[in-house]
């Protein structure tokens, strides 16, 4: 559910001849939840909710989703406005920092994405050992997990410098995804270029070939920006639950993201 705005009132639960008071929480978007966090302690009972269809496992200040009403908001911004007016990297910054970047902040974030676009050259040889019919998602999961071995400075506290942490991951995962696709179709890898935008770079790495150079078209870049914005946050779905579960165990960032890819796959 969205950030909890206030405790509204209480629900009553009667077990045998005893009644328990359960707080009712109201989210900032008007959604309501019954707080059962002390249920086991107070009653000795747990709840049974197959698939967690009726349970909110956390509160969120990042995303609000109401599929029945067609509502999706990131940090309070309607998805329609973000898709129309923003680049994907601006929305990524918004999700990280709870505000859209100004010109200086955006340029710094863009520079970091360019700086971290390459993956370690030794990792490129790993692609040679996947079978030709390997799933791109399988390759992506393995390669993201492998980043842990090449960038061990990331294992301490990823939040100490969230811009560096996020930009390294966001940039390298784009390169690995493109390389994974190229491997799956037997084409030579295409390296990232600093003269292209985030989405333009991804498209070029995906579709450029030695025999047919790819021309980055603005309308395709615009469409890719919108697609990435729409998928920038998944709310509390299977893959999000996976990353929270693995991350809460103390697993490193790359292992957690690898779990996300496997769940999404």
Features:
265 residues, alpha+beta, Rubrerythrin, domain 2, Citrate Synthase, domain 1, 2 domains, three-stranded antiparallel sheet, 11 helices, 13% strand
Detailed description of the structure:
The protein is built from 11 helices and 6 strands. The chain is globular and about 80 Å long. It is of the alpha+beta class and 265 residues long. Strands 1-2-3 form a 3-stranded antiparallel sheet. Strands 4-5-6 form a 3-stranded antiparallel sheet.
Write the layout of secondary structure elements.
Elements: E1 4-15, E2 18-27, E3 32-34, H1 39-43, E4 63-66, E5 71-74, E6 77-78, H2 79-85, H3 88-97, H4 103-115, H5 121-124, H6 136-150, H7 162-185, H8 198-207, H9 218-230, H10 238-248, H11 253-264
Strand order of the largest sheet: 1-2-3
Give the class-level CATH name of the largest domain: Mainly Alpha
Please give the count of helices: 11
* Helical content class: 40-55%
CATH architecture heading of the largest domain: Orthogonal Bundle
Task: Tell me the CATH topology of the largest domain.
Answer: Citrate Synthase, domain 1
What radius of gyration results from the CA coordinates?
Answer: 22 Å
Q: Spans with pLDDT under 50 lasting ≥5 residues?
A: none
The count of β-strands is 6
């Amino acid at each position: 559910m969205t950030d909890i705005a206030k405790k509204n009132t209480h629900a009553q639960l009667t077990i045998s001849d005893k009644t328990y008071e359960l707080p009712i929480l109201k989210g900032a978007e008007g959604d309501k939840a019954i707080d059962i966090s002390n249920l086991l302690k107070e009653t000795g009972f747990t709840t049974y909710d197959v698939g967690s269809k009726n349970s909110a496992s956390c509160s969120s200040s990042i995303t609000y989703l109401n599929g029945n009403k067609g509502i999706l908001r990131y940090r309070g911004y309607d998805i329609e406005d973000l898709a129309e007016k923003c680049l994907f990297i601006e929305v990524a910054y918004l999700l990280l920092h709870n505000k859209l970047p100004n010109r200086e902040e955006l340029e710094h974030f863009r520079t970091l994405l360019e700086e971290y676009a390459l993956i370690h050259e030794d990792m490129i040889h790993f692609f040679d050992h996947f079978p030709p019919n390997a799933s791109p998602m399988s390759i992506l999961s393995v390669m993201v997990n492998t980043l842990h071995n090449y960038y061990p400075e990331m294992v301490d506290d990823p939040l100490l410098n969230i811009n560096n942490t996020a930009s390294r991951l966001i940039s390298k995962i784009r390169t690995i995804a493109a390389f994974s696709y190229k491997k799956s179709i037997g084409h030579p890898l295409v390296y990232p270029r600093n003269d292209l935008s985030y989405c333009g770079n991804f498209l070029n790495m995906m579709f450029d070939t030695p025999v047919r150079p790819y021309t980055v078209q603005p309308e395709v870049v615009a469409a890719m920006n919108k697609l990435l914005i729409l998928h920038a946050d998944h709310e509390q779905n299977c893959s999000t639950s996976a990353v929270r579960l693995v991350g809460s165990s103390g697993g490193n960032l790359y292992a957690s993201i690898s779990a996300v890819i496997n769940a999404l796959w």
